[in-house]
Design brief:
By secondary structure, the protein is of the alpha/beta class. It is built from eight helices and eight strands, in the order E-H-E-H-E-H-E-H-E-H-E-H-E-H-E-H. Helix content is 45%, strand content 17%.
Length: 203
C-alpha cells in the first residue's frame, strides 16, 4: 500500500464519527490517519477505523506518551505511533511491536535522539515556529533518507515552502478536522490538501 505523505490528525473525534470521517478521507486520497489519544475513547475509534478500512488505510495514534499506550494502540489494530516528544521508551516499544514511529522534534538534539531510538520519520513541531528555514538548517545534518514531516501550521497554502526544504510530507490537524465538522466539510478540506500535495510533490 502506497500513501501520500499526508497524515490527517483527528483530534477530538468520537468513535461514532471515526468510520464515516476516515472513509471520506480515504476516498479523497488521504490514507494515513491519526487519532490522538486525548480524543474521547480514542482506542475504540482506532479499532473501528482500522477494522473498517483494513487494506485501504493506515490508522495510528497521536499524543502517545507511554509504552502502555503503544501496546493499547497495537492491540486495537493501529499501525503507527505519533508522539509529541522523543521518549526513547515509547519509540522503542513502537519498534518492538512492528509499528512505525513518528516522534515530535524541535531541535537537532531531539532529532538525533529520535533517530538513535529507532524513529521511522521525524515530526517537526510546531512547524510554524521552526519555519522552513529552521527545518532546512537541521536537514543539512540529518540522514538524507530520514522522512521529515511539517506539523503545526502546515496547510495547502504553504506546502511548497516545506517541500522546497526537503520535507516529505505533512500532518494536518485543525485545518482538516475539528470536533463538530461534518463529513462533507472534511472531504472538501481533504480534496484541497491532496490537490496541493500532488502539485508540489511532482516538482
Amino acid at each position: 500500500m502506497t500513501h501520500r505523505h499526508i497524515i490527517a490528525i483527528l483530534r477530538g473525534i468520537t468513535p461514532d464519527e471515526a468510520v464515516p470521517v476516515c472513509t471520506a478521507l480515504v476516498e479523497a486520497g488521504i490514507t494515513l490517519i491519526e487519532v490522538p489519544l486525548n480524543s474521547p475513547n480514542a482506542v475504540e475509534s482506532i479499532g473501528r477505523a482500522a477494522k473498517a478500512l483494513s487494506m485501504r488505510a493506515e490508522i495510528g495514534a497521536g499524543t502517545v506518551l507511554t509504552p502502555e499506550d503503544v501496546r493499547a494502540v497495537a492491540g486495537a489494530g493501529g499501525t503507527f505511533i505519533v508522539s509529541p516528544d522523543t521518549n526513547a521508551e515509547v519509540i522503542g516499544e513502537t519498534v518492538r511491536l512492528g509499528l512505525k514511529s513518528y516522534p515530535g522534534v524541535f531541535s537537532p538534539t531531539d532529532a538525533f535522539a529520535a533517530i538513535r531510538a529507532g524513529a521511522t520519520g521525524l515530526k517537526f513541531f510546531p512547524a510554524e515556529v521552526l519555519g522552513a528555514k529552521g527545518i532546512k538548517a537541521m536537514k543539512a545534518v540529518l540522514p538524507p533518507d530520514m522522512p521529515l514531516y511539517a506539523v503545526g501550521g502546515a496547510n495547502p497554502d504553504n506546502f511548497n515552502e516545506f517541500f522546497a526544504v526537503g520535507c516529505a510530507g505533512f500532518g494536518l490537524g485543525t485545518y482538516i478536522f475539528k470536533p463538530g465538522m461534518g463529513v462533507d466539510d472534511v472531504r472538501e478540506k481533504a480534496n484541497l490538501a491532496v490537490a496541493a500535495y500532488d502539485r508540489g510533490a511532482v516538482k
